[in-house]
Amino acid sequence: MDRAVFSENGKQLDSFDIELATTVKERERGLMYRESMPEDAGMLFVYPDEGPRSFWMRNTLIPLDMIFIDAAGMVVSVHENAIPGDLTPISSGADARFVLELNGGRARADGISRGTVLSHPMIARQVALRPCSD
């Protein structure tokens, strides 16, 4: 498990122990059926490309903040306190390559919002693998 660090204007806001969901099966299951999650933990969903993302809370037992992040690690949108069990789609509203789920209320408490940057080894690796356009 690696630490992910949120920062804004070069100032660190908070960091979290991150579990990765990189396969289709891992992304489909996500945080379903979990009764709790440590306050300093989260799950980072990693997609093979950047695009619109949509989540729901089926079989999810805890409220979550969903943070949608572009390929460079910048937050493009935040959905706070998703309701456990709710089947209403939650959309990124913009192209995202990553989605980070944290305990509900953490984004607001830590000042995580559009434009905040997330640093994590998986994001750095994906950025490094992107082809150059010369």
Number of helices: 3
Rg (C-alpha, Å): 14 Å
- Do you know the CATH architecture? Sandwich
Structure classification: mainly beta
Give the CATH class. Answer: Mainly Beta
Strand order of the largest sheet: 6-5-8-3-2-1-9
Number of strands: 9
Task: Write down the overall mean pLDDT.
Answer: 91
The SSE string, one letter per element, is EEHEEEEEEHEH
β-sheet strand percentage? 35-45%
Span between termini: 35 Å
The percent of residues in helical segments reads 10-25%
The CATH superfamily is Protein of unknown function DUF192
What would the CATH topology be? Jelly Rolls
- Shape assignment: globular
Overall tally of structural domains: 1
Poorly predicted runs are none
Pfam families: DUF192
Protein name: DUF192 domain-containing protein
InterPro entries: DUF192 (IPR003795), Saro_0823-like_sf (IPR038695)
Organism: Thioclava kandeliae
Write the layout of secondary structure elements.
Layout: E1 2-8, E2 11-21, H1 24-29, E3 41-51, E4 54-55, E5 64-69, E6 75-82, E7 90-91, E8 96-103, H2 106-110, E9 117-119, H3 121-129
Parallel strand pairs: 2-3
Antiparallel strand pairs: 1-2, 1-9, 3-8, 4-7, 5-6, 5-8
